[in-house]
Amino acid sequence: MDPRYDLAANFIAVYLPAMVTNAAPVAFLSRRRCTPLDLGLVLPDGRRLLGDGKTVEGVLVGLVSGLAVSLLLALSLPEFSSLLLRTGLVSSCGAIIGDLAKSFLKRRAGIERGAPLVPADQLDFYLGATLLVLACDKCAQPLLASFLLGLILVPLLHLSTNYAAYKLGLKRVPW
Ligand code: CTP
Ligand code: MG
Q: Which atom of ligand 1 is closest in space to residue 59's alpha carbon?
């Protein structure tokens, strides 16, 4: 199981940390009052910089959860431990950057926090993670097949887990 060449191992090494980072704030913080990352800043267009859906706690919980998963992966494949840790950290950071960039652009387009924007809401973190990992020459690189698999799998997982989170009362909207 070499995460550089084996499809399943490659997908897990590159994308699992990003997926966990993206899901963690909904799972752990939905009922809490958190501090908006933009501290309420409104830009000259009259819209928030990011909005209340992007919080300091969300970023921290996402990063810690992504790192925890990377650590588990590193422990289960010790010969690739530093590669897995590095890739996981970069993947998690990319997921956060992609999510924040998407919210920034949604606000500029006048779309309210939480209003759906398909497929950006599903793929923001995925594309962010892909780009940042590609930019890291010491990380495991996503195989083309991994990337294509994720393009199909990630939106399906995102929609089904968000619907489940809505049913469980963890999310205000089912998307
Ligand atoms: N969340 C958070 N901090 C983050 C990301 C997410 O606190 N950095 C939490 C927020 O409670 C957010 C929820 O996870 O409402 C779902 O995240 P997401 O769907 O990305 O945010 P939206 O509320 O839909 O906001 P936006 O329209 O900006 O995407
Ligand atoms: Mg959303």
A: 8
